[in-house]
Amino acid sequence: MDLKTLQKKLKEIEAMGFVESHRTSDTGIGKTLEDLLGIKENNIPLPDIGEVAELKSYRSSAKSMMTLFTLEPLPKGGDRDRLLLDGFGYSKRDNGRLRELHSTLSCKKYNAQSLKLCVEKDKIRVQGKGRKLNIFWDIKSLEEKFSNKLPALVYVLAETKILKDKEYFHYNEAYLLEDFSFELFKKRVKADDILVDFRMYYRPNGSVRNHGTGFRVKVRKLDSCFAKRTKLI
Q1: Which CATH class is domain 3-231?
Q2: Number of H helices, E strands in the chain
Q3: Is the peptide bond before 75 cis (omega within 30 degrees of 0)?
Q4: 58: Cβ contacts below 8 Å, ≥ 6 apart
Q5: Which of 16, 33, 114, 190 falls 20 to 30 Å from 89 in CA-CA distance?
């Protein structure tokens, strides 16, 4: 599928008005759009841009956040996670874990675990209240992650309505997003439109289980991480 064909199909889908969801769960918005476009997976080969564009669709009214990707900070290794768990982790008597750290970090203020983000020229750093930390993501690792995970993105929004307990979608806004910008990404982190989730704990044997450190973005701010935006409908 080339870009012109994709745009034509999206305009045809927009002209259909409200379409009944093909799936009853929250993922119905993506499944329905994939079916209407005639694709089996959530990516679209686009030879015009020499890439595969990931397809993402959202309800226009959504105020939730989506996970952009998971990426561990530097330096590498278990010592980093142990430092975070020992210094900022907590224990819950009901789950039997010695220490765990499920913590969302923003830039504007410290969270309940006394952690926050700090944006520097070429890094995004983790700060601990009253404690010096050398834990960070650099521009190189973030750009590599973005280029591998989201080289380009077809970003579709839909109005929704419920009729007789069934959800309907009207896909009426779509963009092709290209060229991840670290400078724009930093702005979104500073504005707390992008947050970071730590998800780790100690196993009974003393080893660390890390479920992956996630970068999450407000759905409506996703497009502002890219330097190039092409309106498709």
Answers
A1: alpha beta
A2: 5, 14
A3: yes
A4: 29, 66, 155, 156, 157, 158, 219
A5: 190
3-state secondary structure of 22: coil
- Tens digit of pLDDT at every position of the chain (233 positions): 888 999 999 999 999 999 999 988 888 999 999 999 998 877 787 776 667 788 888 898 877 788 888 999 999 888 999 999 999 999 887 766 789 999 999 999 999 999 999 999 999 999 999 888 999 999 889 888 887 777 788 989 999 999 999 999 999 999 999 888 889 999 999 999 999 999 999 988 889 999 999 999 988 888 888 889 999 99
Amino acid type, 70: T
Helix (H, G, I), strand (E, B) or coil at 62: coil
pTM given for the model: 0.81
Provide the β-strand partners of residue 44. Answer: 53
User: Quick one: which H or E segment has residue 2?
Assistant: none
Contact 169, 158 (CB under 8 A): yes
Distance separating alpha carbons of residues 233 and 155, to the nearest angstrom: 11
Strand pairing class (65-70; 115-119)? unpaired
In this structure, are strands 65-70 and 208-210 parallel, antiparallel, or unpaired? unpaired
- Which residues, other chains included, contact 162 with Cβ-Cβ below 8 Å and sequence gap of 6+? 168
Q: Is 219 helix (H, G, I), strand (E, B) or coil?
A: helix
Strands, E, within the chain: which ranges? 19-20, 43-46, 51-59, 65-70, 100-105, 115-119, 123-128, 131-138, 152-163, 166-180, 194-202, 208-210, 214-218, 226-231
At 119 the three-state DSSP class reads strand
As beta bridge partners, residue 74 has 136
What is the distance of C-alpha 142 from the center of its chain?
13
